[in-house]
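ok so I'm stuck.
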Amino acid sequence: MAKIPKEDAGWVIALSWLSALEETARDFHGTRPKLFCERAYEHAVQHFLHVLGDEYDIQVKKAATIRAAVEQYIQVGVEGRLFQDASDFELVDVNPFRVDITVHNCKYLKSCQTLIDQGFRIKNLTCARIGCFRAAVKTLANIDCDYQVRSFNIDGDCQGYVERI
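replied:
not stuck anymore, here's the structure
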């Protein structure tokens, strides 16, 4: 039996809970659990930022744009060890109201592939990474946005966008 490395234990638990949350959303909302998941991502981002500030004195700045909010969330995510490195993300401004995001080495790709294998379409995928970036924009910049997964490849990258509504 393999022993789970101590540094991976928290991630295994978090991934299990996140997967359960999204599966439960699909149980109640079919192939379109996005609204439910968006709200869960908002709560998760708010709680994460609150814990970082209150317990670890990692202060989070407000932002004026979608890109600035995503960049700020990535920065505090690295500080808070949610993300390993900021270089795991590429941001491209499409216009002032939309930022395309590439997530390298996404931890959730196997879950997405399982859903695709079950007949889901890419546009019906929820995405904790890009969904939380959307929630961070709402929290840090007070800009209401939508997000969408556009593509992924099981070898490591997924792409999507956050766009002002």
